[in-house]
């Protein structure tokens, strides 16, 4: 599922980069922003798993 992006948000993201930013820096920022947006959408859609459940599944201490 692709997350829709508004031009204003894309411009703001680019404007916040350092003056000497690389393409890799831009791609990292896009990746992080997209991951956050997807997580927020999952949360709004109630598509989340409790931390305790994940810990049990992978045998991690709670």
Strand-helix topology:
Layout: H1 7-15, H2 23-44, H3 51-57
Shape: elongated
The helix count comes to 3
The helix-strand sequence is HHH
Number of strands: 0
Overall pLDDT confidence: 94
Total of domains: 1
Helical percent range? 55-70%
- Helix/strand/pairing category: mainly alpha
Report the end-to-end length measured between terminal Cα atoms. Answer: 32 Å
How many strands, which pairing sense, and closed or not: the largest β-sheet? none
From the alpha-carbon coordinates, what is the Rg to the nearest angstrom? Answer: 16 Å
- Beta fraction of the residues? under 5%
- Provide the low-confidence segments as ranges: none
Describe this structure in words.
This protein has 62 residues and is mainly α. It has one domain. It contains 3 helices and no strands. The protein has helices spanning 7-15, 23-44, 51-57. The chain is elongated and about 45 Å long. It starts with 6 loop residues before the first helix and ends in a 5-residue tail after the last helix. The relative contact order is 0.10.
